[in-house]
């Protein structure tokens, strides 16, 4: 015999204390039985279509799950709620947003905001903490027209630093939707052109160095460049065009030990032999605590490299 109360409790445990009325009806409950449970002390309505087990924790995740259940099959957390659910820095739950393919249903949820795009990429949905949500690449595509380009850029770098494989998936997703006229495709295409597969986002130290150059009016440098002809010498932090001047941004964590210093010196010697005329190692302490010195050192290094190049050419 069907034990409705046991089924409700078991289902709610998987759904943040929630059960959709439609789920209970599909499982065999009658509307009278549902009204009877709601009249008692154990259950209450979280929305017009979703029951909540009394005593279950009230969380942002529960609210999102209620929105998804209220929206019905095919409803997926999206918009600015998606990066919040993914716990990306700088995003809070705020107003709740979800999407559902308009071909599935025209029903409007009684909570949150629902968008009805012409099509949702079913292959690009997943679950986080038991809540249906767009995948990380699809989330980045979805929020592209909603936030400032600089914020989108930082978010892409944050995600890529945590999981480099996301960048590959994002490039593939752009290929699938690049010709769709979807909002945000243009800025995303521009940002990905600067971030090919294999791209490594800048560290906080590198971002600080780049900002100091920009503020001083110094031309930018190419970052994370592999150097060497038939024999690979290494990947350097920054290089000028033409590549006669290099900058290595050395953090104390990865360049402070005696063996690290010796390895750096050997690499610098190899770079000099390969024709790179001027190498400027910049220590972390200078970048953070004596920032005014950074543009001056770069400017002087560029001048020395230019003089050396003229001497070689004469």
What this model shows, in words?
This protein has 3 domains: 4-56; 62-193, no CATH class; 204-313, Endonuclease, Chain A, CATH 3.40.960.10. The strands form 4 sheets. The chain has a 4-stranded mixed sheet, sandwiched between helices. The protein starts with a helix and ends with a helix. By secondary structure, the protein is of the alpha+beta class. The protein is elongated. It is built from 14 helices and 12 strands.
**For this entry, what is the oligomeric state of its chains?**
single chain
CA(first)-CA(last) distance:
97 Å
* Uncertain stretches: 253-260
Shape: elongated
SS element count, helices: 14
How many domains? 3
Largest sheet: 4 strands, mixed
Query: Largest sheet, order of strands side by side?
Result: 9-10-11-12
Order of helices and strands: HEHHEEHEHEEEEHHHHHEEEHHEHH
Strand content: 15-25%
* Rg measurement, Å: 28 Å
Structural class: alpha+beta
The overall pLDDT average reads 84
Instruction: Say how many strands there are.
Output: 12
Helix content: 40-55%
